[in-house]
Amino acid sequence: MSSRPAQQEKKRLAAVVQQHFDGASADWANRYAREPQSMADLDLILRRQNVHYLIQPLLAAADRTLQVVDVGCGSGDVLDGLPRDVIRVTGMDFSREMARQAGVMHPNDTFAPGDATKLPFRYDSADIVTSLGVLEYVPNPIEALSGMTEILRPGGHMIVSFPNRTSLFRRLLSIERSAEKSLVRLRDMVRGTDRAKAYDSQYRHRQWTPAEAASMLNRAGLVVEEMRVNTYGPWGRLGRLRTMRSLSARISRNWTAAGFLTKRLACTMVIRARKPSHDN
Ligand SMILES: C[S@@+](CC[C@H](N)C(=O)[O-])C[C@H]1O[C@@H](n2cnc3c(N)ncnc32)[C@H](O)[C@@H]1O
Predict the structure, then answer these.
(1) Ligand 1: centre distance to CA 101 (Å)
(2) Which protein residue's CA is at the shortest distance from atom 3 of ligand 1?
(3) How far is the CA of 107 from the centre of ligand 1 (A)?
(4) E strands, 76-222, in order
(5) Which of 1-10, 23-32, 80-89, 103-112 is the least confident region?
(6) Confidence band (pLDDT; 50, 70, 90) for 13?
(7) Which of 1, 59, 215, 262 is the most buried (most CB within 10 A)?
(8) Model confidence at 29: pLDDT above 90
(9) Is 80 exceeded by the pLDDT of residue 200?
(10) What is the rounded average pLDDT of the residues 149-158?
């Protein structure tokens, strides 16, 4: 059992994540609708493209309406554009504001606030569970994955994303951030200010290698079927240049298969995994 200070720290971090996404909720749907204004915007759009690619064969094979649970649904836009005669979507999000906005934007789907590690759904009830851009914020991602697997019916599928720790572009970003922070620290020392504090991320944003991501899914009891990758390009100062983003978009839209090179460059992995049926 974890100690009281550890639990309090967990609660504090959860509140920081919640507050962050409550604040981001008003603009979240716009990030899907407008031309990307940052590399992070572009990543959202490309990630959704990969989700749709991975989900399409499941919908094409469906002989009834599929129950889809979107964990950490944000504004509910990840599944936007998929035919609602084949899927029924229930989304839940840690941020009340996100869940509320999702309900306003998508009145035909169902949304509620909730925690990825305490899912309010029956075991073996969902045909598909999606969770995009969420695990990196969850204190215990294995626990969250196991919970999502429990609500999935045998033979059902999970589509989940992981930030790619081996990505050259993610490494460049962390070098750029450290260099910036060192400079600000130096300035703080000279000027007697305390600006470097703002560089300390208030919440942990985890990243995984492709092998680690696959192994986590295996540990949760799933079989990996396919991995897609997206977003090549610098996220820092260079990523703020529009030409850089359109170049990145052009390359990223085509290089989506997870191969030797793409797995070392692309920023995000999207994986489709299956919960084994009782008979296999
Ligand atoms: C980066 S956003 C992604 C939103 C959406 N899936 C998308 O791709 O547009 C991460 C979302 O995960 C939610 N989240 C973070 N921790 C969570 C948790 N423990 N349980 C449920 N949702 C969580 C946040 O509130 C936020 O809306």
Answers:
(1) 13
(2) 133
(3) 19
(4) 87-93, 110-113, 126-131, 152-163
(5) 1-10
(6) confident
(7) 262
(8) yes
(9) no
(10) 98
pLDDT for the residue 280: 59
**Best of 31, 43, 50, 134 to mutate for ligand 1, by most ligand atoms within 8 A of CB?**
134
48 vs 178, residue with greater confidence: 48
Residue ranges of the domains in the chain?
A: 4-274
Helix (H, G, I), strand (E, B) or coil at 230: strand
> Which amino acid does the sequence have at 107?
P
Token duo for residue 116 = 């990825």
For the Cβ of 44 lying below 6 angstroms from any atom of ligand 1, the answer is yes
In the chain, what is the straight-line distance between the N-terminal and C-terminal CA atoms, in Å? Answer: 35
Determine the distance separating the centroid of ligand 1 and the alpha carbon of 280, expressed in angstroms: 32
Which residue is listed with tokens 């959704």?
48
- Judge if the beta carbon of residue 137 lies within 6 A of ligand 1: yes
DSSP 134-188: -GGG-S-HHHHHHHHHHHEEEEEEEEEEEEBTT-HHHHHHHHHHHHHHHHHHHHH
CATH superfamily of 4-274: Vaccinia Virus protein VP39 (3.40.50.150)
Helix pair 210-219, 141-151: axis angle to 10 deg: 50
Q: Is the CB of 98 under 6 A from ligand 1?
A: yes
